[in-house]
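Regression test case RT-17, inverse folding.

Input:
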């Protein structure tokens, strides 16, 4: 993992290849609440073959220093500064769940630095179950287990679900609580139609945390967007069905479409 210094804090990120390969598209992956680079484990090998992939760990997550935030806009500004600090050219953003909220915010504020966006298991509004909001600090382990039960399809192997539990447990309870507070406050249902970038929306058909209805809403409002519902996968679709997931993104990046006529 490499490190970028932002506001005196070490922000951790993974890149497939350093230096970056000229002529390849840059793809920056942003994890969800309580996440880290572990959520993108099945993307690393695939994307480094043909792209310049970058996996960012938000402040307070994984090996990144800092406290985390309770506001999506603040996370979006941190990601914007990260992109500037690395002097990245126009790029594609992939955001999962809370990361998808961050990507929508960046698409609305800074579309000029983006070539396209990929919204994964997310929505224009992300209200959170009261159990998660009220009990994360007091019953961390039980809440993390419950979140991960809901986050994976019932068809997913217990080993993969355990990976999700261990990954989230490695995040401090205060950071996880902050993330879900940020999600719960997030609402761009009225603004999202102003996104004018090539957009791919991906959702597992068994997603219980951000159901297909949320993805359909995004698809209906973002002109020219493409919607891909992946069968037998839940909220952690990039871990549960990595082959279809990766290939869908590869195809989109190689021919991103934006049609204002839709
Ligand atoms: N896209 C499209 N529709 C949405 C939406 C989105 N992003 N967010 C909410 N809605 C819809 C709901 O489906 C609902 O429609 P309905 O009245 O036709 O049923 C309406 O807007 C209001 O929903 P919501 O704002 O979610 O409030 P609520 O009081 O009905 O439900 C929860 C609150 C927390 C129970 C519910 O949001 C939920 O189950 N959330 C998913 C679980 C979770 O915690 N996810 C984590 C997200 S990071």
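Golden output:
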């Amino acid at each position: 993992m490499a490190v970028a210094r932002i506001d005196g804090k070490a922000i951790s990120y993974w890149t497939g290849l350093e230096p970056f390969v000229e002529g390849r598209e840059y793809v920056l992956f942003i994890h969800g609440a309580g996440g880290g680079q572990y959520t993108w484990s099945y993307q690393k090998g695939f994307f480094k073959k043909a792209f310049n992939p970058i996996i960012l760990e938000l402040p307070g997550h994984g090996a990144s220093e800092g406290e985390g935030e309770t506001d999506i806009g603040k996370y979006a500004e941190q990601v914007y500064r990260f992109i500037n600090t690395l002097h990245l050219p126009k790029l594609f953003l992939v955001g999962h769940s809370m990361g998808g909220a961050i990507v929508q915010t960046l698409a609305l504020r800074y579309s000029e630095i983006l070539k396209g966006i990929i919204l994964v298991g997310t929505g224009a509004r992300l209200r959170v179950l009261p159990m998660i909001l009220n009990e994360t600090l007091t019953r961390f382990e039980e809440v993390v287990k419950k979140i991960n039960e809901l986050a994976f399809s019932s068809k997913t192997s217990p080993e993969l679900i355990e990976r999700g539990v261990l990954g989230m447990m490695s995040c401090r309870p205060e950071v996880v609580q902050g993330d879900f507070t940020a999600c719960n406050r997030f609402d761009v249902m009225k603004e999202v139609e102003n996104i004018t970038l090539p957009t791919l929306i991906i959702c597992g058909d068994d997603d219980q945390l951000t159901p297909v209805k949320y993805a359909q809403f995004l698809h209906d409002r973002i002109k020219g967007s493409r919607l891909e519902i992946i069968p037998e996968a839940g909220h952690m679709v990039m871990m549960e069905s990595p082959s279809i997931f990766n290939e869908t993104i590869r195809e989109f990046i190689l021919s991103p479409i934006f049609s204002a006529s839709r």
